[in-house]
Amino acid sequence: MSAATKATITRADSALTPKGERRAAEILDATVRCLARDGYSATSIQAVADEAGLHKRVVLYYYGSREGLFDRVVRHLGDELFDELERELGALDDPEEIVGRGYERLWKVVTRDRPLVISWFALRAESVTNPTLASTARYVTDRFRALVSGLIDQALGRGRTLRIARGSLEVLILAGFQGLILEYLERGDTPQLRTAIDDFQIWLASVSEPPS
Amino acid sequence: MSAATKATITRADSALTPKGERRAAEILDATVRCLARDGYSATSIQAVADEAGLHKRVVLYYYGSREGLFDRVVRHLGDELFDELERELGALDDPEEIVGRGYERLWKVVTRDRPLVISWFALRAESVTNPTLASTARYVTDRFRALVSGLIDQALGRGRTLRIARGSLEVLILAGFQGLILEYLERGDTPQLRTAIDDFQIWLASVSEPPS
Amino acid sequence: MSAATKATITRADSALTPKGERRAAEILDATVRCLARDGYSATSIQAVADEAGLHKRVVLYYYGSREGLFDRVVRHLGDELFDELERELGALDDPEEIVGRGYERLWKVVTRDRPLVISWFALRAESVTNPTLASTARYVTDRFRALVSGLIDQALGRGRTLRIARGSLEVLILAGFQGLILEYLERGDTPQLRTAIDDFQIWLASVSEPPS
Amino acid sequence: MSAATKATITRADSALTPKGERRAAEILDATVRCLARDGYSATSIQAVADEAGLHKRVVLYYYGSREGLFDRVVRHLGDELFDELERELGALDDPEEIVGRGYERLWKVVTRDRPLVISWFALRAESVTNPTLASTARYVTDRFRALVSGLIDQALGRGRTLRIARGSLEVLILAGFQGLILEYLERGDTPQLRTAIDDFQIWLASVSEPPS
DNA sequence: CATGAATGAGCGTTCATTCAT
DNA sequence: TATGAATGAACGCTCATTCAT
User: Fold this and answer.
1) How far is the CA of C13 from the C1' of F12 (A)?
2) What span, in angstroms and rounded, lies between the C-alpha atoms of D119 and D133?
3) Do A and D make contact, counting contact as 3+ CB pairs within 8 angstroms?
4) Distance from residue B46's CA to nucleotide F20's C1', rounded to whole Å
5) Which chain D residue has the Cα nearest residue B3?
6) Which residues, 6+ apart, have CB-to-CB distance to D100 below 8 Å?
7) Residue A208, beta-bridge partner list
8) How far is Cα B193 from Cα A166, in angstroms, rounded to an integer?
């Protein structure tokens, strides 16, 4: 949070002409493509500019700095993802459904756009050691955490009870999800992975019990 | 030029004098410290040299290239980790023990050296988009996979039967482990994480049943 | 990355401020001086920058790469030379004159600026083994070939007939010229060389006959 | 001459074990291959070592320095070429034959080994601006000059008389030869080139007349 | 005799960024 | 507002060579 507010206000924040708006969006897309293809360290301002077909200087003009660009990219990625997820999962009313279908939908949404996942993960990984990215990456995991937490609340609100500690469940869902994403990134969408996701979901269903 | 030979055969491969041996090891350690502290992209040859108190040129002399250095670091890290793990887990005879204690020991070994874990993860993440690191990172995950597979074989050999598909189990163990590692790297060794590990282990125990 | 674009489009191509124009030209001149004095392999970007009294980075700013710089130098040299040659030779109307004076004028123009000749030859020689320079060097020899070919056409147009095959004549003129240039570079402007040029010209005059 | 005698005596000069002899020869061959393929500036000691499958240090051990290596290579190339040429041309007794067949044989010998020609030319070109190579390259052109001069003497001795100045003839033969070599290197063995060589030879024959 | 160890200097290039208009 | 000009610092890497055994 702090770093985000601290960050100098970039051109892309303030009012832009339609052309500027379009350019800023193009740059964002180009950055995601670069991150997905080349990873964090190889995604230089020059590389983004080349990818977008613009002069390096233009990228800087719209986002102030490399750090600023990545910050915007991450938030853009996270918002896009979680807005859709909340829409998808919000439509599930039945608690059984949430447990039964929730994870599957989550997975579906996430894996629909591989470059997006790779980009997110590249920044996520870099944030472990790069303090300038830490708060940025945190924004996404926090939204994720909130989503998971909200789903658990929803289940509890419907009268379901947990068989394991709530904190532990949250951690396991997050860890399981991120671990499976890693597996997906390394090996792709293998049959074993799909079965594993099903089994994970079965475990998820068994971890809470319906109201007696 | 024979790029292939140059890329793979480094000074550190061939016979070294004791002093050379020592230096090569020092460089390796310095690299791990840099990776853990600064991440992949910030770990330049210069940074490693500074950390080791040597001239940049010496690092290159021993490892040929940045890529070559990282390759060696990953293998060094992996071997160190898995040699110990195999020793630890090989000592467990009782199948109940393997299931009950295995994961705990795995975790203990891995988290003993945080810099080492961060380093491994930094390279692991980079390998997603960096083809020159892919095969290198694969070396470690393959050893991990083999270890897990071996443990499952051992359990099966003792007459235990699996309640889920074998491939799915392997994936879940790997994904769970890597996901928990990520959680550990982001939040540290929280109580929730410890409980989650316990719960993961309980699930692991429940996933196979003893011979009737 | 679009290496192709980066390799060909340099700052010096697009519109430059007068100051930029001046600097780009200064760098070109400095490069020719370096090439003439030190040869291809010793003409580093640093050396050019020193010669021009600029920072190494400025040279790169204007020409993108060492290769790009040499490419521009060759074309600059070739254009300067052949524009003048075409002007000089275009002024000769009488076919007798062309044969009689053509080679002399060619020689005069070429040898007026020794550094320029050395530079051209240094790049010419390097292009034999350096594929990145091949097309560049070809640009000049092609202009030369076109010039020679045009002169032959002119002579034929006036009704002269050739005593040897046209292709052979072209080759001999080019080879003779380049060979004499080499001699000039190695030994300087010796009396033997001057006599040889005269004899070459006599042969040239005898190789075609006037309309009966 | 001076530089050659000045040059520190390399290992390859003094007595060598058979193995050493073999190695020194291998290095020489590897150098020619490198020069022919990559040119002067790209032929580093490292490149030669890689090509020969030896350690860089070994190359230096046998030839003392890069300069020393090239010096030996040039002399080796020149000797190989001219020894054979002198043998070939020495066998021609009839003055008519010398004029008629001489140039053809010269050409045949030279173009038999393209890498050798490229190597020679690469060093020849570099020597224009590189003083450390000047005397070395001179060794070959001097042998060439002597060969040409000897042939002229032979013709004169048989009573033939020259229609142009002797110095001019020498220059034209050398220049013609080197120019045709350049053409050969740039365009290969084209029909036009072959015809040009024939025409050059016809001119050569016409430049002297038999004893009356 | 032969080779591993080591090195200082320099290479071409890219980095993110600031200046100036 | 938007962009060319310019830049200092650092990048990974190769150079020819010397030291030491």
Assistant:
1) 29
2) 13
3) no
4) 27
5) D50
6) D201, D205
7) A162
8) 11
Give the number of beta-carbon pairs within 8 Å between B and D: 5
Per-domain residue ranges for chain B?
3-67, 73-209
Is the pLDDT at D135 greater than 50? The verdict is yes
- Interchain CB distance below 8 Å, C199 and D36: no
Nearest protein residue by Cα to C1' of nucleotide E17 = A65
Torsions phi, psi of D199, nearest 5? -65, -35
Interface contacts (A, B; CB < 8 Å): 148
- Helices B131-157 and B166-187: crossing angle in degrees, nearest 10, is 120
Average pLDDT over residues C106-132: 85
Nucleic strand F within 7 A of Cβ D173? no
Which residue in C118, C119, C114, C120 sits closest to C138, CA to CA? C120
Report the distance from CA of residue D63 to the C1' of nucleotide F21 in Å, as an integer. 21
Q: What is the mean pLDDT of residues D175-203?
A: 92
A15: alpha, beta or left? (left if phi > 0; alpha if psi -120 to 50): beta
Nearest nucleotide (C1') to alpha carbon of B57? E7
pLDDT tens for B103-113 read: 778 788 878 88
* C-alpha closest to that of A203 among A178, A173, A175: A173
Query: H helices within C39-164, ranges in order?
Result: 45-52, 56-63, 66-90, 95-112, 114-129, 131-157
Structural domain D3-67, CATH architecture: Orthogonal Bundle (1.10)
pLDDT band at A119 (very low <50, low <70, confident <90, very high): confident
Tell me how far apart the alpha carbons of residues C78 and C89 are, in angstroms, rounded to a whole number: 16
Measured distance CA(C8)–CA(C67) in Å, rounded:
10
Q: Which amino acid, B79? A: D
Chains contacting C (3 or more CB pairs within 8 Å): A, D
Sign of CA pseudo-dihedral A27, A28, A34, A35: positive
Residue C103 neighbours by CB under 8 Å, 6+ apart? C197, C200, C201, C204
Is the CB of C65 within 7 Å of strand F?
A: no
Give the global pTM. Answer: 0.83
- The answer to whether the beta carbons of residues D170 and D177 sit under 8 Å apart is no
| Closest residue, by C-alpha, to the C1' of E8 | B57
Q: What is the DSSP string of B28-80?
A: HHHHHHHHHHH-TTT--HHHHHHHHTS-HHHHHHHHSSHHHHHHHHHHHHHHH
Chain C: closest CA distance from residue D52 (Å): 20
Chains that touch B (3 or more CB pairs under 8 A): A, D
CB of D11 lies under 7 Å from some atom of strand F: no
Surface-to-core class of residue A57, CB atoms within 10 Å of its CB (0-12 exposed, 13-18 middle, 19+ buried): exposed
